[in-house]
Design a protein that fits this description.
Amino acid/polyamine transporter I; two-stranded antiparallel ribbon; globular
Length: 569
């Protein structure tokens, strides 16, 4: 069922840019500043520490596994540790995320279309949807709201809670269709089309962010916002470690399988270490976005006459704070168009990476069957996009913002911590020695002592401690001051289990199909079968010299047949 040949990136820079595009997304300008605001400057300290000891080593590990096995996350991780089929869970969480993440792109398109107006609709309070509390100038009223805040709530048309579903927002529904069409056009030709798109989508956002920073630091009150960002509130330090680790996993994409899938299209002898500046670029982008948005926070606090810490900031801040900033810039319509086009670029990169995980994994597993049904890979990709679109429809109803927040909380924070834990255990403790050998076989050099120490000791211990504390300190999902009712929290846990459940189910299935006693089953299930079997074998067709014949890896997520296992051992 394997594909006859695996395509590769036309140039290595295309993978690097695609990796940056995948890692650097809306989370850098949306989730990171939001978490910083909730945690004060204390968030930066654990965030940077997690980058060094978790982010960089684990990205290195994922890229190595993907490049060596030349398979998507399901096959790659089942090959490394058949007992813990984390790859299936990674595919599940990527698919769940892509269904609601595209809503953020939908909002960007909505704002983009509304930017072709003079004046901008969020520039003043002289609109039919504005309330008496709306202000576009400095005031001392703590009950005031800015024009950009009110435009955001007007777009959502939100209900008072998740109990009221409201009606379908037809403008957002139609734009959601457009967003999925754009995603499809980016990926329908595989890495050959993706590689060309990323030249623009990965680089253009930096031009806009730097221009906005130059403008924002000149606004009144900007210094107060920047001080809030960089000066730690040490009393909050104890409660932000879980969020810092979750942000590293979410932003870089560790545990989602996106970069692992992309690295499977690398040439076999690519130097993986050269691509690790993906994680450095990602974090520097987050910090750059932090300076941009917190200088705008300072300006908002100046307008409303209240401290930065008392601003009404919700998860939609990227659509509230940034528009407020460039509404006062010269040629504000131009800046609005460029900014929301930038958000579109950021969102598209991350979104098509998540969709690519599903496509790559299913094509690896069921290539012949899927081609028989859909005739062409392009039609199969269209079907995947169509299903994801249907699951995203609840997010464009009036209750959509609550559905979005519920899914984001239980997927991007709860599920990813469990997935990261099992992935680290699967690779670091059952495969770490072979991982070093794989790297030496591909590049001629073993990883240095820092990476090996992180893989073997630091990361497994750290992720275990973080997982325990995340369970102890767990807080139910909320949107602003609104706390979701128990039945909604129950739905949230079902969403979380939709990805996590595949790990224990996969373990039970593996132990069930293996021969022998329970002890022998366990020994077989933690032994990386396929990579041992490929050692010393080389492709005779389609591969370069020195390239392992990965084609003999089992095409099933279960293990090879019992006879071949008995023969091997």
């Amino acid at each position: 069922d394997q594909q006859p040949s695996r395509p590769t990136w036309s140039r290595q820079i295309e993978f690097t840019l695609a990796g940056i595009g995948c890692a650097v997304g809306l989370g850098n300008v949306w989730r990171f500043p939001y978490l910083c605001y909730r945690s004060g400057g204390a968030f930066l300290v654990p965030y940077l520490l997690m980058l060094v000891v978790l982010g960089i080593p684990l990205l290195y590990m994922e890229l190595t596994v993907g490049q060596y096995t030349r398979r998507g996350p399901v096959h790659a991780l089942a090959t490394v540790c058949p007992l813990l089929k984390v790859g299936i869970a990674s595919v599940a969480i990527s698919f769940i995320m892509c269904t609601y993440y595209n809503i953020v792109i939908t909002w960007a398109l909505y704002y983009l279309f509304n930017s072709f107006q003079a004046p901008l609709p969020w520039q003043s309070c002289n609109n039919t949807w504005n309330t008496p509390n709306c202000t576009d100038h400095a005031t001392n009223s703590s009950y005031s709201s800015t024009a950009s805040q009110e435009f955001f709530h007007k777009m959502l048309g939100q209900t008072s809670g998740v109990e009221e579903t409201g009606i379908l927002r037809w403008e957002l529904f139609l734009i959601l269709i457009l967003a999925w069409i754009l995603i499809y056009l980016c990926i329908f030709k595989g890495v050959k089309s993706t590689g060309k798109v990323v030249y623009f989508t990965a680089l253009f956002p930096y031009v806009i962010l730097i221009a906005l920073l130059i403008n924002n630091v000149q606004l009144p009150g900007a210094s107060d916002g920047i001080s809030f960002f960089i000066v730690p509130e040490w009393d909050k330090l104890r409660s932000v470690w879980v969020n810092a680790a979750a942000q590293i996993f979410n932003s870089i994409g560790i545990g989602f399988g996106s970069l692992l899938a992309m690295s499977s299209y690398n040439s076999f002898n690519n130097n993986v270490l050269d691509t690790l500046f993906i994680s450095i670029t990602n974090s520097l982008t987050s910090i750059l976005a932090g300076f941009v948005i917190f200088s705008a926070f300072g300006y908002m606090s100046y307008l409303q006459g209240i401290p930065v810490s008392q601003l009404a900031v919700d998860p939609g801040l990227v659509y509230v704070v940034y528009p407020q900033a460039f509404a006062n810039m010269p040629v504000s319509q131009l800046w609005a168009v460029l900014f929301f086009f930038m958000l579109l670029c950021l969102g598209l990169d991350s979104e098509f990476a998540m969709v690519e995980v599903m496509v790559t994994s299913l094509m690896d597993e069921f290539y012949q069957q899927l081609i028989r049904i859909f005739k062409r890979k392009e039609l199969f990709i269209l079907a995947v996009c169509g299903v994801a679109f249907l699951f995203g429809i609840p997010c464009v109803m009036q209750v959509g913002i609550y559905v979005f927040q519920l899914m984001d909380h239980y997927t991007a924070i709860v599920s990813i911590m469990f997935l990261a834990f099992f992935e680290i255990i699967a690779i670091c403790w059952s495969y770490v020695k072979r991982l070093s050998s794989n790297m030496e076989e591909m590049t001629g050099q073993k990883p240095n002592i820092f990476f090996r120490l992180c893989w073997l000791v630091v990361d497994p211990v750290l992720i275990t401690v973080i997982l325990i504390f995340s369970i102890i300190q767990f807080r139910p999902a909320r949107y602003g001051d609104y706390v979701f009712p128990p039945w909604a929290q129950g739905i949230g846990w079902v969403i979380a289990l939709a990805s996590i459940i595949w790990i224990p189910l996969g373990a039970i299935h593996t132990l069930w199909v293996l021969p022998g006693s329970l002890t022998k089953k366990l020994k077989l299930s933690i032994t990386p079968y396929a990579l041992n079997a490929t050692k010393g074998l080389y492709k005779e067709r389609g591969g370069g010299a020195g390239e392992p014949d990965i084609s003999i890896i089992s095409s099933s997520t279960s293990l090879p047949d019992k006879k071949s296992i008995e023969t091997y051992f």
